[in-house]
UniProtKB/TrEMBL annotation:
It catalyses: 8-oxo-dGTP + H2O = 8-oxo-dGMP + diphosphate + H(+). InterPro entries: Mutator_MutT, MutT-like, MutY_C, Nudix_hydrolase, NUDIX_hydrolase-like_dom_sf, NUDIX_hydrolase_CS, NUDIX_hydrolase_dom. This is 8-oxo-dGTP diphosphatase. Mg(2+) binds at G9, E29. Its cofactor is Mg(2+). GO terms for biological process: DNA repair; DNA replication. Its EC number is 3.6.1.55. It comes from Hyella patelloides LEGE 07179. Residues 1-102 form the Nudix hydrolase domain. 8-oxo-dGTP binds at E6, F7, P8, G9, N91. It holds the Pfam family NUDIX_4.
């Protein structure tokens, strides 16, 4: 899905848990260490030619400087700024959930 912004992540390796996958993918893609916390949402989305399942967790930044290792660019933005970026369809459910949870407080 070239040209679109996305949250970091990737495919689960054999014998790897979801939390292990998230931690590994963040390290590989951004070069930072995180603590993977509780599940936020699981999304199953059917695109015209394939289906994805996104396992989204709350994560806590621990250390390192974010780098664009496996992507062209990295940006840390707040929820209000996300509207300036175009994401794959499945990601909008994550964005909407994050926005609604912040509005509750």
């Amino acid at each position: 899905m070239g040209g679109l912004w996305e949250f970091p992540g990737g495919k689960i390796e054999p014998n790897e848990t979801i939390k292990e996958c998230i931690k590994r993918e963040i390290k590989e893609e951004l070069g930072i260490e995180i603590l993977v916390r509780e599940s936020l949402i699981t999304i199953e989305h059917q695109y015209p030619k394939f289906k994805v399942t996104l396992f989204v967790h709350h994560c806590q930044y621990l250390q390192g400087t974010p780098q664009a290792i496996e992507c062209e660019e990295v940006r840390w933005v707040n929820l209000l700024e996300l509207d300036k970026y175009t994401f794959p369809e499945a990601n909008y459910e994550i964005i909407n959930l994050l926005k609604s949870s912040v509005q509750k407080y």
